[in-house]
Amino acid sequence: MNLKSVAIVTGASQGIGEATAVRLARDFAAIVLVARDKENLERAASGVKSAGADAMVQAIDLSEPKAAEVVVSEALERFGRIDALLNIAGAVPQIDLFEMTEAQWEDGMALKFHGARRLTIHAWDALKVSQGSVVLISGSAALDPKPGFAAVAAINAAIIALAKAFAEQGIKDGIQVNSVVPGAVMTGRRRSFFEKWAPAHHLTVEEAVRKFPEDVGISRFGKPEEIADLLGYLVSPAAKWMTGASLRMDGGEIKGV
């Protein structure tokens, strides 16, 4: 089956990924939802269908080297094209620089960095045909590294650099590539972090959630839907001349242009 436009969204089972899949259903004919959690993917796919697009669920672990090839080949087999790839999957543990194990470093790189790298490479030829778009999700820790979340910062910084490298090749091949740097967005994963962090700091979860924005200098947490709207713009015709950019949306946590 050939459709007018097809987007692949990774990390689509929750948080920013799910919000993005549903948001893109307004602009794309089909969304390929990729993550490890099939049950939550199916729930997110229902939201995509309700928003007006066809949905394909791929429950797969992108940290596995062969996963990217499977995602791309199955998407092409069903839809015949790929017009946008949004690399959102990847959670990196927030553990002190001096406490992280080798395995934890490797796990953090395997999904968020290497998973995105491999998927972009495997989708590249299809994106050349469609003159499509790629977005890689980084994070504001890349711009303000601290010992307590060194892996998050280092891997997110690497993603920004990787996106710029892809963008350079994309200028030659007609593929638009950008990265997005979200700040503190309230997702289920972030709330789970506070559920572990708050007791260790003699706070209730709600106290920790209220205190955090003030501590980092923002008025509130971001919403997944706000990041999704930015991503929707980046893969729209209106943003087609924007490439090689790293766009920060963090409520003013890091000041600068």
Structure write-up:
The protein has 257 residues and is of the alpha/beta class. The chain folds into two domains: 6-185 and 223-248, NAD(P)-binding Rossmann-like Domain (Rossmann fold, 3-Layer(aba) Sandwich), CATH 3.40.50; 186-221. Helix content is 49%, strand content 14%. It is built from eight helices and seven strands; from the N terminus they run E-H-E-H-E-H-E-H-E-H-E-H-H-H-E. It has helices at residues 15-24, 38-50, 67-79, 102-130, 150-173, 188-200, 205-216, 224-234, and strands spanning 6-10, 30-35, 54-59, 84-87, 133-137, 176-182, 246-249. A seven-stranded parallel beta sheet has the order 3-2-1-4-5-6-7, sandwiched between helices. The radius of gyration is 18 Å and the shape is globular. It starts with 5 loop residues before the first strand and ends in an 8-residue tail after the last strand.
